[in-house]
Amino acid sequence: MPANLSLAARAVALGYNVLAVDSDVVVLDDWYWRAKQPPLSSYQLLSQAECPICINGGFSYIQNANPAGPVAWMFYEAVHRAAADPSRVSYVDDQTMLTDVLWSCVTGRPQFGALGFFLRDDPAAMQRLQVANEAEFRERNTPAANFTDVVDYHQHFMTVHGAGSAWPLPRGGYPFNRTAGPRTAAYRAAFADLGVRLPPDPEDPATQQAAANTPAERFGLLSLFAEPARDYMGGWAESVWAHTGRLGYWHTHLGAPPWQGVGHTHASLFPGDFQKQIIMQAAGQWDWRVATRLGGAPSRSFYASYAHADAFLGAQQGNATDIPRLVAYRPGVIRPGISKAQFLAAARGLAQVAVALGAVAAWPAVPCDAEWALSAAGRNMSRPIRHSIPWLHLNTQFVVMPFGDSLDTLQCEWLGFASIDCLMDRQMYGLNGGRGMLAMEFNSLLTRRRRRRLAAVSGSQASLAVASAGAALASPGAGGGHTLQLPQQGGGGAAGASSSSDDGGGSSLGDGSISSSNSSDELVTVRHTDLLQLNAPLLLLPKQARGHIPVLWLDRPVGEVAGLEGEAKARFDTWRLRMRGQAGYGHVLSLMNEVRDCQRLARVMLSAHHEQGPISCGAYTTKDANGQEYSTGWTLMARHMGFTAWWKKWFTVARAVALGYNVLAVDSDVVVLDDWYWRAKQPPLSSYQLLSQAECPICINGGFSYIQNANPAGPVAWMFYEAVHRAVRWTEDWSAVAAISAVSAPDHNRVAMVDDQTMLTDVLYNCIVGRPQFMAMWYYVKDDAAALAKLQVNSESDYRERNTPSGNFTDRVFPVSSGLAGLVRESFWDVSGANGGVNLATVRLRSATLRMPHSGGVWPLPHGSYPFNRQLGPRTQAFRQAFKDLGVPLPPDPEDPTTEAAARATAPENFTLLNLDAGEGWRLGGWAESTWGTQGRVGYWHSHLQPPPARAMGHIHAGLWPGEAVQKQVVFQATGHFDWRVAARLGGSPSRAYFAAWPGTEAFANGQHDRTVELRRVVAYGPGVITAGLSKAQFLAAARGLAQVAVALGAVAAWPAVPCDAEWALSAAGRNMSRPIRHSIPWLHLNTQFVVMPFGDSLDTLQCEWLGFATAECLMDSRRDGKEGGRGMTAMEFEHLARRRELEQAGYVPQSTPYNRINELVNMGAPLRHAPSPDNTLRLGSARTASIPPASNASSAAATFTTTTTSTSSSTGGQAAPQLLAVSLSELRQLNVEMLLMNQQPHEPVPVFWLDRLVAEVTGMEGRAATAFETWQQRCRALRYNELGEYERGLF
């Protein structure tokens, strides 16, 4: 609960009038002049509306309120309730609590609607409160009927009292401990110390009459959105950006109508990081003098001057740096006729030039006349457009933001650039990117420079100076900058499909260079070497006087800097990768099973809002009108067929495609590796309407599909519609299939044998052959000879072959464009440069032409006949109606004879398969979309290690080691794509971000953070104890000993990393390499086929995770059957924990730092190893050499070993065999009890205790420790590796 709310409550209690505002509130006109005359003067409380009957906490004005009246009680009680600290209190924010106590005043009795946030997912709690469900509780505590619209929107307050001892359960009962805690007592004392009369206590029966006699007060809501007139009641007094500001009413310097007193930027803003500051800049409410003082100099008053958002928001002058030079397009280069795709290509070229020259890119403004900057109303206006306020003709809904000195010179900022990664170089992972400057920042820079020139001119020269200053800035080389020399050559690059609004249109640097149809606007391509050679003299110029920033102008739009190399290439690749959040990937709709899952997702992702905007999420109802659960979880599916969640996904995709959207449909194990849209929007991918991952040489995997520029009534749209349509029909009515197959007839659940990707492939084949057929029927008739005879085929293979159009696929060959040069390959293992490795001139894609299917009234038996009941059931009718309700033309119905001509006349569309297996290590289209098994596990997904950029998207897919539900998260951890911030929020705290905090896979999969447990302490081997000379058997014995120590001390075992030079971690090729091994990508020298997974910050510090530990049973204690086991951490988890502890202990991360910043700080620079010390190294006492039985199979364990000092035959030559010790349980505990107690310090939430020697066994294990270890050993196969069969040992 914000401290300013408590301050406001105390001020009101002292009789003050209070204007309580957030820091994003701006004064637009005289608020008090409005507030002190009718109608506002008759209200004691005026607040911004968050909903039609609730308060937004960003703006409230209290005037002439009784210090002992209902308004004063409201603010007192809001903080008072928070001080009581109920469980899960963080679910309720200040404005929720203010609204709750507002409603208490409206009804005149204490009630607790905010309790709904704590109890809404607890049916038993709702029953105790005597309400049927959460909705009823909410309705009983929401006094909607008590609000009235009487010319002005207001409500009378009544003083609140509990009416004696009555606390009705449906109102929340009495939800506090009647014994006040110390914080609550301190809060009450703070008000008692004021020495003034306070409002009657609603809990005290003696004050009931005083409460009844307290005069009522009035409350009014401001900026209330009123349907259906779309008015904003009270918006003339206080307004919000989304309602009035974005339409120009806040641009007071442009003569906006004076129809608002104050403005609140509030919410519903564009995705970005500095939205509210940017709004102030555009509206002319930004003080550049203050920005200059914060930065330390005029040249440091821009976003690009700061290293990261915290430095900017925290005004850390020491982190502000000078801008060496700027690169900008000369006025007039970006013209109104430019398309969005051309604009983005020109911006990308500008960024490449800036990086090549060590400059900051001045992002260009969008001409406000540009077609794509206009709303639908604006596109119908004559040109040139005369701008006026409100500018409803401009598309200010997240697309552009107007700014300028006058309406005649209005410019528009494209909001895609309004992101931290477009403006600042955060240098994450030690990698440098690029920096940018907003168009309005650049405009301010030029304006201030013009004013300084005018200030140097006196008297009669002033008017001349105005013209000359403007000319100097508009004419490069005349004192306002220098024009960059570009080679005299033609336009460049990839041709031109225009970018769509839902994906590539959101890309900051996402589109290739696209040639304009107008030769004067043609985007030029320049070579990196030419750019440097031609402009070397300009780059040597000294910095301009008086802190000015040199400006280098481009007089032509650049589409590409070809041959970008060295540091410039690395910087641009890093910059483009960081900006992917602005490249359409923020337009994500997460499809969840339940609405409550969406609510939980929103809470978990709260910390990412400043980067990506609010999470979009949807769910389909899982219950009927009576609250009864659907058997399949979805009303349209009568029985299970594959996973219901997948059908919901494709239903959503089908409707989106029917509405004309481009859709990237992915599973949750897909990761963005580079800019997909940049690749998809240029040849060869731009020529396809459907691109899908290959599951087989001619079939679809459902995990990745991209639909672009598809006809909403064409074959691709029909494909997704029909796939779900068939699933709905078969699950609802099996009778037609049963009539064909007597084997299938008795078992309607047999329908589940077909999953979503099988059905998608089936309808794909329909489009390829141009007629309905039913390959999926093969699953229902393959074991029924009589059914096959009915279908007039000889066998199940005959049926499959007749319905599989293998001959209709072709491997098309495409030339590699200059934009894709170096980014494509077909062989991902052979990187010698031959055989598809690198520098390809052509690429192949397996393709097919899709046509609109139609039966023509014929349903041949060998193709499945007509396998549906012609009498439609209610679910099938509901499915069809859902598409009719979209109000758009749908594809021709292939069953309707009257639509045959329309179907035949429908234009064909193109399809291709990606990541198609073409032999060992070969994948056609794998440079666009890849899978873990071929590309990811050999290093191509480790983006922070700078692998070859021959991949855009990754899909983990299948073929993983046995891991019981954690494998895919482990992959993301190893490759650097795991978000530890989200893991911390799921677990409930940063120290619960690890697998060991979860009590089993069910709680982990469902994100049940209330079931997580603390790690308490961790035991790990110290640096250097695990060496490359250890055999696999020795490593396993040391891990088993570590596990016993951990169980004995009630700790979590930090499983050790395998040195990547260890003989048994290498492949056959690696064992023939000289040592030390210099790692490179692809790391074919490492045995990544289920044995080890590399991770680390650099190739020089690479470590390997043994995958035997990367299983749920080795990491979590599920306490199955009530038995306690042990817990472990993967080596990469321990690496994260150790870094976080080091930074905290070294003072680099203040306790006040939000966790959403720790992840970034952890990755800045090299880790500060907090080495083991006598205070945290476990004492082993009189440990003796262990006697360990040899492995049961020498080849599978890499080597047997002895525990004496004889030499081994390991890869380290004649080095002595390491000693593995046996330690006594009683001695281990007695020697370390003080250390275990003393190291549990508040500043060290997860203490780490180190072993400085190898331990193979803890002897004398007994009692609870012995039982727990035995249970853990039975669950975790890695702890009994030598007892496993040969097949299981071969898995890892």
From TrEMBL:
Organism: Chlamydomonas incerta
Composition skew (Low complexity), residue ranges: 510-520
Chain positions covered by the region annotation Disordered: 478-520, 1186-1214
Phylogenetic classification of the source organism: Eukaryota, Viridiplantae, Chlorophyta, core chlorophytes, Chlorophyceae
Protein's recorded name: Nucleotide-diphospho-sugar transferase domain-containing protein
